Amino acid sequence: MTTATVAAKPAKQPKPLPAPNSDFYDVYETLGAEELATVKKVRAFMEAKVAPVITKYWVDDAFPFELLPGVKELGIGGLGMQGYGCAGGSVALLGFVLMEIARIDPSFATFFGVHDGLAMGSIYLGGSEEQKQKWLPPMARWEKIGCFGLTEPLVGSGTSRGMLTTAKRDGDTWILNGEKKWIGNAPWCDISIIWARDVADNQVKAFIVENKTTPGFKVEKIQNKIALKVVQNGHITLENCRIPEENRLQQDQSFRDTARVLKMTRFMVGWEATGCAMGAYENALKYCQERLQFGRPIASFQMVQDLLARMLANITASQCLLVRMAQLQAEGKLTDAHASLAKAFTTAKCRETVAWARELLGGNGIAADYNVGRFFADAEALYSYEGTFQIQNLILGKAITGFSAFV
Ligand SMILES: Cc1cc2nc3c(=O)[nH]c(=O)nc-3n(C[C@H](O)[C@H](O)[C@H](O)COP(=O)(O)OP(=O)(O)OC[C@H]3O[C@@H](n4cnc5c(N)ncnc54)[C@H](O)[C@@H]3O)c2cc1C
Q1: Atom of ligand 1 lying closest to residue 150 CA
Q2: Residues enclosing ligand 1, CB less than 6 A?
Q3: Residue 9 scores a pLDDT above 90
Q4: Number of neighbours of residue 12 by Cβ within 10 angstroms
Q5: What is the pTM of this model?
């Protein structure tokens, strides 16, 4: 056989590399078809509209108001809440949507979580029928945006015992005095849920305060944050603010009612943290597949694969835990301790995961341009807000030992 008769071997095509996928155990398949379609719609919006612009807003410490019309069209206002013009759906759907948003931008998820979970959730859980009818529909349509004022400059973790903001009844009105710090959305939103201690019975009560029309209500934007920079956090001052009795959340009697809201929203922070880890992992994996060192993609190195495997394990464990939590919540069995374990575990795993992602990008890991640096910084705030890691473990510790170790 001459060489001329030998058919030339076709050039070997390189095998396509697997696309980064942070749903390794197909947890998204636990949703029904309709709810999955909602999550996919949110993913498409986040990837097409938010991802291309969000780093610039993050670097500039600015909120992307241009994206709000698109958010309204998604029809996700009041997700997880039934009636009152809310989007409804299961608690799992709300979680998956938050995870999906955080996968692209944890700040955007926080903006959504503060409005939908903390502000609307407070009214949904603590408001009278009349209050829900009045406030929830415009909030579900995003015509009125809310915030949640619990933390104070001098009292953070200890708000259950030492809240300094006071409420004094005077006929049909209440007079509120005090300060609130770190309040997400506060510098520009319409409604604040303000938690204050009633001087008459020393119990914590909640008030709907209209930011733009209440004399004595002032907000200063908190500057120079290093995490969740897209969210605008405010330092609120309340100076003899007169709030009508009809704006006091009628079903809330004490800090136990604050805790009812926090139980729900802490669990939601777990989804945000897991989304944050997913975003960091997917960005890092893609980078590792493309980045060459020593003439080879760094994804082919054993020690790099070890970190990627650990990251995916953290994410998968967190997702499975949250899906079970959603079942417990749907069955009315979710306890404060359940929510605390989930918040502490998922945010700690997120923090570990984003740090490994940052590590895998080498120097580029600290540049905002590669996304991973943004996830890395944002994870710090998720880890601390809505109750720090220590506070969650103290709640859990009390439940499992029978001893309170708060002080
Ligand atoms: C970006 C961001 C957004 C936020 N958004 C909001 C919001 O919208 N609304 C709102 O009300 N709040 C908000 N917060 C506030 C947040 O919930 C608090 O920061 C958090 O609860 C911790 O309070 P602190 O910062 O005062 O810390 P501190 O309470 O001063 O705690 C400092 C440290 O001491 C530890 N510690 C405290 N007590 C104990 C104890 N008994 N045992 C062991 N360790 C303890 C804590 O774990 C922590 O490590 C936000 C915070 C951030 C950073």
Answers
A1: 11
A2: 114, 147-151, 156-157, 182-184, 228, 233, 381, 384-388, 390-391, 394, 406-407
A3: no
A4: 6
A5: 0.96
